[in-house]
């Protein structure tokens, strides 16, 4: 049965408020957990860089706990499982996602380097720190995906058709980056378009 337009509008606002609430609670939990590590570990710029990304682990936990308690179908969609062929949350799809993400970020970094926006210096190679950095970045990007393409897209698809759900989810994804350093209108448009592409990928492959 078609939902009344007013109810649909209120449903989006409800999903939006829950998403923002999960971000707030998760951020507070992540920062609280890091406060303990800051007391135990000696301060350094290297650790602070890792902590910026590691703090997002609170959002990961908040989204998973909320979906487990209140959105069981969405939570089930986040679990490791094959849905046949190239569909589902499988180790192969996870590795494919890592590869695509690595290549996409690599292209962006190369373009920024060629444009003179970033410079590199080599002072040594620390493989354990590099591994820790990759894990922390995965935690941060995972938090964005669980919140936007996991919970929000899943919830919106329950009440709206796919184009509307993808559009609303992608606009929210773009809004999350409005306070990034050096943000411009063009960068926000790019982020929204990336959100559309990733949302459609999740829908088509049935894989987060």
Give a short overview.
The protein has 208 residues and is mainly alpha-helical. It has helices at residues 5-40, 45-54, 57-70, 72-78, 91-115, 127-157, 162-175, 185-205; strands spanning 81-82, 88-89. The model has no long low-confidence stretch (mean pLDDT 89).
Beta-strand residue percentage: under 5%
Roughly how much helix do the residues carry, as a percent range? over 70%
Task: Give the helix tally.
Answer: 8
Shape: globular
The unreliable regions are: none
User: What characterizes the major β-sheet?
Assistant: 2 strands, antiparallel
N-to-C span: 28 Å
How would you classify the helix and strand content by structural class?
A: mainly alpha
Number of strands: 2
Radius of gyration: 19 Å
Mean pLDDT: 89
- Order of H and E elements: HHHHEEHHHH
* Sheet with the most strands: spatial strand order: 1-2
List the SSEs and their pairings.
Elements: H1 5-40, H2 45-54, H3 57-70, H4 72-78, E1 81-82, E2 88-89, H5 91-115, H6 127-157, H7 162-175, H8 185-205
Antiparallel strand pairs: 1-2
Helix pairs in contact: 1-3, 1-6, 2-6, 3-4, 3-6, 4-6, 6-7, 7-8
